[in-house]
Amino acid sequence: MSAVAVSHFIRIIMTDLTQHPAIMKENSEVHINCSHDDSNLVIMLWYQQSKDSLSMTLIGYGYESSQNYEGLFEEQFTMTRQNTVKGTLIIHRASLSHSAVYFCAASTQ
């Protein structure tokens, strides 16, 4: 069985966000949590940076009550929000193609 490397970091200015890196088993469901401390930042965005890539790809963004996905990401990922300051990115069945650095960010618009 292969292992999937899932690293996740957060980049945002003027607020404190928290995430922790992980290595998961292939075909497992992976939950990546993100939290910040500013309830004015109502939009949470999730990005994926694949191995050997300098650019990040937007997975999607959402508010507490609705999520918007880019391209085919909705088939592989689910974004949830527990409240304005906490959210989770879920990888349904982790595979080697999901090996990446995942970023969350928060914004007012």
From TrEMBL:
* One annotated Gene Ontology cellular component of this protein: plasma membrane
The lineage's top-level taxon is Eukaryota
Recite the UniProt keywords alphabetically: Immunity, Signal
Q: Which residues form the Ig-like domain?
A: 10-109
One biological process term from GO is: cell surface receptor signaling pathway
Which protein is depicted? Ig-like domain-containing protein
**From which lineage does this chain's organism come?**
Eukaryota, Metazoa, Chordata, Craniata, Vertebrata
